[in-house]
Amino acid sequence: MPKQIFFDDIFIWLKEHVLLLQIVLIALGILTFIVIFTTIIYIRLREHRHRNID
Predict the structure, then answer these.
(1) pLDDT truncated to tens, each residue of the chain (54 aa)?
(2) What is the pTM of this model?
């Protein structure tokens, strides 16, 4: 199978599934944001506890 046909198939599939891809990208973005946010809060709380102990 020539590469050009393969890429055309991918392009057609992407065009048909744009909405699905957008939902997946948004979900990944939200998950990444939550992970970063919780990590920052966790680090801040840990630093705060260490200061109180000293």
Answers:
(1) 578 888 899 889 889 999 999 999 999 999 999 999 999 999 999 988 877 665
(2) 0.55
